[in-house]
């Protein structure tokens, strides 16, 4: 089946393919060499930047200013993400407690909801818009060990949702 000549042809073809590959690599490096030693970074094209004009200053807005600019109408659309676990139209609980009158309510105050130990032991804290903002960024940073793991990281969406929830409390 395999004789010496067949084996020699197979080894020779692999050696020939390797030689062609190495010669092609050498030719490509020679043709497309841009200067510098191997491994040295060389700028092929430099983009000129005008340093004469100072950059525009970024104006920092306070939380109150950003919240005042939030749109409760857009927040109502954001509410769809919360609807799977919470209710706002009636005082019924789902996976999470109802959010009727959430802004201004004490943390863990819904009597007929079985809170996680992280929220059940909280006394005296009230859900303010600022606290809810931090809560929606990362619930476990505000109350470690909470069972809520949903995060709303987009600032505009979060403020719109908070404006909607705040409008329901008033």
Radius of gyration, CA atoms, in whole angstroms: 32 Å
CATH H level, superfamily name of one domain: Cytochrome c-like domain
- CATH architecture verdict of one domain: Orthogonal Bundle
Average pLDDT over all residues:
84
InterPro entries: Cyt_c-like_dom, Cyt_c-like_dom_sf, Cyt_c_1A/1B
Protein name: Cytochrome c
GO molecular function: electron transfer activity; heme binding; metal ion binding
Keywords: Electron transport, Heme, Iron, Metal-binding, Transport
Could you walk me through the main structural features you see in this protein, from its secondary elements to its overall organization?
Residues 70-169 form the Cytochrome c domain. One of its GO terms (molecular function) is metal ion binding. It comes from Marivita hallyeonensis. The protein has 170 residues and is mainly alpha-helical. The chain has a domain at 63-169: Cytochrome Bc1 Complex, Chain D, domain 2 (Orthogonal Bundle). The chain is 43% helix and 0% strand. The chain is built from 7 helices and no strands. α5 (129-137) packs across α7 (155-169). The longest helix has 28 residues, at 4-31. The N and C termini lie far apart (91 Å).
């Amino acid at each position: 089946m395999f004789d010496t000549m067949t084996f020699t042809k197979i080894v020779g073809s692999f050696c020939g393919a390797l030689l062609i590959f190495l010669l092609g690599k050498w030719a490509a490096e020679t043709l497309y060499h841009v200067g510098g030693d191997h491994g040295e970074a060389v700028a092929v094209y430099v983009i000129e930047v005008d340093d004469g004009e100072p950059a525009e200053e970024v104006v920092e807005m306070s939380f109150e200013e950003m919240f005042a600019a939030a749109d409760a109408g857009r927040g109502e659309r954001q509410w769809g993400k919360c609807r799977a676990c919470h209710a706002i139209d009636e005082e019924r609980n789902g996976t999470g407690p109802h959010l009727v009158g959430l802004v201004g309510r004490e943390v863990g105050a819904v009597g007929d909801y079985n809170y996680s130990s992280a929220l059940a032991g909280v006394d005296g804290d009230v859900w303010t818009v600022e606290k809810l903002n931090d809560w929606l960024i990362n619930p476990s940073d505000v109350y470690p060990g909470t069972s809520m793991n949903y995060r709303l990281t987009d600032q505009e969406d979060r403020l719109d949702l908070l404006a909607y929830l705040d409008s329901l409390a008033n």
